[in-house]
Amino acid sequence: MDLTRSPLALPFPDMPQIAGAVPRVARARYKDWDRCDLTFVELAEGTSVAGVFTRNVCCSTEVEMGREQVKAGHARALVVNAGNSNAFTGYRGREAVEQIMAQVADGLGCAHNEVFVSSTGVIGVPLPKDKARDGVAAVMQAEPCSWQDAAATIATTDTFDKGASASAMLGETRVELVGIVKGSGMIAPDMATMLGYIFTDAAVAPAFLQECLSRANAGTFNCITVDSDTSTSDTVLAFATGKAGNALLDGWDAPGADAFFAAVQDVCRQLAHLVVRDGEGASKFIEVRVSGAASDESARRVALAIANSPLVKTAIAGGDANWGRVVMAVGKAGEPADRDRLSIGFGGTWAARDGQPVPDYDEAPVAEHLAGQEIRVEADLAMGDGSATVWTCDLTHGYIDINADYRS
Amino acid sequence: MDLTRSPLALPFPDMPQIAGAVPRVARARYKDWDRCDLTFVELAEGTSVAGVFTRNVCCSTEVEMGREQVKAGHARALVVNAGNSNAFTGYRGREAVEQIMAQVADGLGCAHNEVFVSSTGVIGVPLPKDKARDGVAAVMQAEPCSWQDAAATIATTDTFDKGASASAMLGETRVELVGIVKGSGMIAPDMATMLGYIFTDAAVAPAFLQECLSRANAGTFNCITVDSDTSTSDTVLAFATGKAGNALLDGWDAPGADAFFAAVQDVCRQLAHLVVRDGEGASKFIEVRVSGAASDESARRVALAIANSPLVKTAIAGGDANWGRVVMAVGKAGEPADRDRLSIGFGGTWAARDGQPVPDYDEAPVAEHLAGQEIRVEADLAMGDGSATVWTCDLTHGYIDINADYRS
């Protein structure tokens, strides 16, 4: 099918090279298509790795193995297959992953468990081992490519290439971070059909890298939702090559630790927003802010109930300031709330306060806000100090078009 | 907007009169429309009542009051306002309900709390007291009407009138049950924008009527979902006028208690299915059967995860036997499951067994099944003895059309 570029797409940014992380792409022809679909990133010796993974019980072999591999903390290569998720394929799927790990490890002279494999695409078809073998052989001989080429090659139903970068000063040393991500449907906490990879030249101990990634993930990738469905393959990996020459970052007391964490969070937030911007059928980017909840976690649940409500999402698609549906969504979240203290607003204008419509409510500024592409929904529960922000997109005919026809 | 009759609609059945329950309808003109929108059912002295209500925290005044009123167990009248839900309207909404209760109670010479009021329609607009007053005065003078007229008058976005009936033998006495229901969007457990009313001429003690209704509700209304959104107004009330002349049914040991419960369950199941058949934009009626779960409750949660998944619902809309999305939905439910023991089928044909695609899987019979209007999705977890069945509809362009434009 022909996927139209999302109206919310952003141009691919200029992204620096990362010393010790070299991307290459090739054609494995996992599907009958004329595009690169195999991505290989070679990582310098001594590269640290951290990861967060889907909580879907029916996860893929790649997720199961990746979860184990990050515990060792070291990586020499990343391989991403696009067009076949290899999920729900039993022992045959596992054999294909092990074959790729062995082939790359032999080529680089590293341990098998330093080779990280991800796959994305159709569920239930074992990754063809012959295509994988030829593809891996080709990609290891290919010329290095740009981060945008790598971002394009990990994509499936994405309508634009997604990347982000940031930098941080660790003492006197400047370190660079780049990230690429793919994902547009089956997106929800915790982790969705989303594959994200972050590369930095900083020297970071694996345990601290994991701490930074997990913390950043909680407020970024775990706060986006497109359709409430969570995938069997979701993975975000962070690789730190150590080539920048900084003193090893091994905890919060190390010089520049806060700056490094801020940069990781910045890249994660940018990438997470890009996924929402490519939400299937999205025409509006929606930020849902909940305040006054009993706790931050309670606020997040309420915000997700709003962001996942088909009735809220279709109302916003239609530019309808239907705050009654937001009330409904707050109420169904099952979190502490009091109808008569609840306030609902759009883009900074309260429509309802303390459980009643605002007297002389002027819908004009709200209608104008909702006619735009960047929407903000606000709910104040007046119960406590908990707050949270999540991001989603509207629900449109485009979502139905894509998902009633595409065999994902 | 012009709502097209659901392709899944069923004709309104012949329904008997119920001695002691007399329906009437009138025009209150809650909206600018040319139809009856106020329903009044006068109930004989000594009528027992039971009810189940939405768990939405932001429920309407009507729900709050109804929940208290059923504790007393007696009813003399039901009033249903259509076109305005009166939810989220603070003290002004409450005053309108109290006015209706007082006006009807004065007319009938009964206690205020024997008058049950429901309202359905737009949220956040206080029910206009002047229209309610004139409407109630008119309806109490109106001629008795048919159950179909009553079903049509409680409706809002419904595209067809919904009713069901059953009978039971209590010893030598035959008792009749009729039910009417409205609802098509914002439908999900627990209880949705659904108003349902069951009337019987049986003599039933309030506590036993409540037990029958609560039990029946658990496997019927609480097992349907259209869009996972739960409303602020959902209510099912059962009224037993006692005019059939049976010995009072006051517990499971009374003659005919099982038959009566079966009839209540039958009416509830029929009404619940009718709501799904009028699901906004529905083109297919979907039964989701989960077996082999750790418990019945676990099976129900897994079944609802499947039934609420936009990706599953759009796949079925497209006639796509996309069992991978069912795997995904099972996995995201967060219930005990083992990927490598999971089996998925459609209409009696397994597509995947024990965590892998079925060898030589023939998609032809499945494709034929999915081309129909009555779809069955099966998931066996091979974990235990828990099972559950839930009902939903597909997700189509019609849902977007209705909800991006209609201010509900």
UniProtKB/TrEMBL annotation, chains A, B:
<keyword id="KW-0963">Cytoplasm</keyword>
<dbReference type="InterPro" id="IPR042195">
    <property type="entry name" value="ArgJ_beta_C"/>
</dbReference>
<dbReference type="GO" id="GO:0004042">
    <property type="term" value="F:L-glutamate N-acetyltransferase activity"/>
</dbReference>
<feature type="binding site">
    <location>
        <position position="156"/>
    </location>
    <ligand>
        <name>substrate</name>
    </ligand>
</feature>
<dbReference type="GO" id="GO:0004358">
    <property type="term" value="F:L-glutamate N-acetyltransferase activity, acting on acetyl-L-ornithine as donor"/>
</dbReference>
<feature type="binding site">
    <location>
        <position position="193"/>
    </location>
    <ligand>
        <name>substrate</name>
    </ligand>
</feature>
<keyword id="KW-0055">Arginine biosynthesis</keyword>
<keyword id="KW-0068">Autocatalytic cleavage</keyword>
<feature type="site" description="Involved in the stabilization of negative charge on the oxyanion by the formation of the oxyanion hole">
    <location>
        <position position="121"/>
    </location>
</feature>
<feature type="binding site">
    <location>
        <position position="280"/>
    </location>
    <ligand>
        <name>substrate</name>
    </ligand>
</feature>
<dbReference type="GO" id="GO:0006526">
    <property type="term" value="P:L-arginine biosynthetic process"/>
</dbReference>
<protein>
    <recommendedName>
        <fullName>Arginine biosynthesis bifunctional protein ArgJ</fullName>
        <ecNumber>2.3.1.35</ecNumber>
        <ecNumber>2.3.1.1</ecNumber>
    </recommendedName>
</protein>
<keyword id="KW-0808">Transferase</keyword>
<keyword id="KW-0028">Amino-acid biosynthesis</keyword>
<feature type="binding site">
    <location>
        <position position="403"/>
    </location>
    <ligand>
        <name>substrate</name>
    </ligand>
</feature>
<comment type="function">
    <text>Catalyzes two activities which are involved in the cyclic version of arginine biosynthesis: the synthesis of N-acetylglutamate from glutamate and acetyl-CoA as the acetyl donor, and of ornithine by transacetylation between N(2)-acetylornithine and glutamate.</text>
</comment>
<feature type="active site" description="Nucleophile">
    <location>
        <position position="193"/>
    </location>
</feature>
<feature type="binding site">
    <location>
        <position position="408"/>
    </location>
    <ligand>
        <name>substrate</name>
    </ligand>
</feature>
<comment type="similarity">
    <text>Belongs to the ArgJ family.</text>
</comment>
<comment type="subunit">
    <text>Heterotetramer of two alpha and two beta chains.</text>
</comment>
<dbReference type="Pfam" id="PF01960">
    <property type="entry name" value="ArgJ"/>
</dbReference>
<dbReference type="InterPro" id="IPR002813">
    <property type="entry name" value="Arg_biosynth_ArgJ"/>
</dbReference>
<feature type="binding site">
    <location>
        <position position="182"/>
    </location>
    <ligand>
        <name>substrate</name>
    </ligand>
</feature>
<dbReference type="GO" id="GO:0005737">
    <property type="term" value="C:cytoplasm"/>
</dbReference>
<comment type="pathway">
    <text>Amino-acid biosynthesis; L-arginine biosynthesis; L-ornithine and N-acetyl-L-glutamate from L-glutamate and N(2)-acetyl-L-ornithine (cyclic): step 1/1.</text>
</comment>
<feature type="site" description="Cleavage; by autolysis">
    <location>
        <begin position="192"/>
        <end position="193"/>
    </location>
</feature>
<dbReference type="InterPro" id="IPR016117">
    <property type="entry name" value="ArgJ-like_dom_sf"/>
</dbReference>
<comment type="pathway">
    <text>Amino-acid biosynthesis; L-arginine biosynthesis; N(2)-acetyl-L-ornithine from L-glutamate: step 1/4.</text>
</comment>
<dbReference type="GO" id="GO:0006592">
    <property type="term" value="P:ornithine biosynthetic process"/>
</dbReference>
<keyword id="KW-0511">Multifunctional enzyme</keyword>
<keyword id="KW-0012">Acyltransferase</keyword>
<feature type="site" description="Involved in the stabilization of negative charge on the oxyanion by the formation of the oxyanion hole">
    <location>
        <position position="120"/>
    </location>
</feature>
